[in-house]
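FAQ: What does the model actually see?

It sees only this:
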Amino acid sequence: MSGRGWQSLFRAQSLRRWQSSSTLPPPIGKFESLSDNSRRFTFALAGFLGGSAFIYSIINPNKFKLSRVKSMVGLESDSKELEKRKLTSREKRFIKFSSVEYEGQIYMTPQDFLESVIEAEPKPRLKRRKLGDREITALKENTPDMAGNSDSLFRHLGNKGIIAYTEYLFLLTILIKPSSGFKIAFSMLDQDGNERIDKEEFKVLESIFSSAAKERKENLNLEDNDYGLQKGHQVDTSLLVHFFGRDGEEELKFSEFCTFMDNLQTEVLHMEFGEFSKGAPSISELDFARILLRYTFLNSEDYDNILERLYERLQEEKGITFEEFKDFCQFLNNLDDFQIAMRMYTLADKPISQEEFSRAVHICTGKHLSTHMVYTVFQIFDDDGDGLLSYQEFVAMMKDRIHRGLKTYSRQEGWEGFKHCVKREMRETS
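And it is asked to produce this:
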């Protein structure tokens, strides 16, 4: 057979190999089904997009990313749907300090909670301790009822207890809010007017003040939450056992709840105070300033300038006792009332004197701050030394203090970011 014959034979066999035995007509592609005008429009559109992307990449080489082109032409799905939800600052802190785990959900111990509001970093550990049903039962047996409540409850429990994420948010709220706000919600849930609520009603109260729903609105399906913060199973935590007993049938009185609030606030303040007092009955005015400023977004230079200014202005070092420190910190929990009083009193938002400041604090809290405490506060925050205080700037800085660095701030950092926050707070108070 000639060479041309062999070529014809191989061509025929090759065609038969790729031909289908089906009698249906070959499929027609979407592009082939378009009319001539539609094809020309498609080519023009593709050329326009490609040319625009090329020109943009030349003008802005740093901003151009291949992923943008892929998403433009449909080769890459929306990254927001695939990207894992970002954690809030409180979620990050809870995860960082949580040291135990039960059935896939992470928990804080009472000791973890105290450390999370005092320390910058948790104590070193190899891994979280996994609890079983036997350990959970033992923790319930170890938890005292409300009769055993004291201002050392959390330190007494130590690592023998569990606190869920929603309870963590609720406890943080207790540290920064006065009891008056809880009184309103408590009364709304107390349908028979006996100032008592049961376990299920308390969970409603907890959800109101913990802001869990607001912070976790991006992830409403708790079963699919892979961070271990919230799971569908139910377990009686140490807080529930403390309030409602091991069987969960007890009722919580509002007076008992107020006692719990005061004791928890006092316990945290004791730990903060003790960090600087080292067992002494008082701390120095400089240490008091360090406690107030530790959560503010001041750079090191401005921080040092405030401490140096305080040192130079103090005529003598009398010290700050724990009772003075506690009274001032509890006043900070009433900052909203203080702002209202100041707006009504100083209609032009003018600076206030020490006497006006003391009177406003007494109106808001019913307590009198010592003369030395008020004098010390003014030496810390009176920038120009004229004896007057801009209450708006004071409130803005003290909100950093009561939120303990967990409030949402501007993306700006350092002094510029802090000034932005102060200006924003001043606008909100005006």
